[in-house]
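BUG-182 | component: ligand-complex export | severity: low

The export step for shikimate-3-phosphate jobs runs without errors, but we want the raw record kept on the ticket for reference. Input record follows.
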Amino acid sequence: MDRYAPLRLRTIALVGLMGVGKSSVGRRLAAALDLPFLDADAEVEAAAGRSISDIFADLGEPAFREGERRVIARLLELPPHVLATGGGAFANSEVRALIKAKAVSVWLKADLDVLARRVARKDTRPLLVGKDPLKVLQELADKRYPAYAQADVTVETGDAAHQVTVEQVLGALSDYLETQTP
Ligand code: S3P
């Protein structure tokens, strides 16, 4: 039997802080499983017809969060796929409940200094603009880790290449789903 068949039965939602590789790992994970890949941030941008930076600037963060919730609720109704969520999604209790109900959730976790180094390469994240990334990430970690810890599976990625993380996620998901089989 195809050893990955059980992993294709439900959507796999990747959660965790900015810079941890939810999109890059998600795209590779989807390819490995031959599942579609969807990126919640990109879908929010498509629905709003503007970038996340512009949504924050023009409409404010609460409007972004509301759009994010609606978009993720819609995506979770689609057939099984790999879904990269934005860092704030799983921290929201309503979105978290939806993901818990409709998907298998994976928290990708890495040291904050690794994340700070990675996010410094991009200026597309409104929560970081003009701020010390390590400080912001530390504050977000303090607030969000209790929520992220409710994911079905946690994968500590370290600073590994994304393809290595994909292998770790595949192993962790297989182990998890085995414990779930009646
Ligand atoms: C956010 C993370 C971003 C994006 C938005 C807010 C957050 O997604 O949704 O800038 O609150 O952590 P990534 O985690 O994909 O960077």
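Assignee comment: Attached the raw record above. The CA atoms of residues 88 and 151 lie 14 Å apart.
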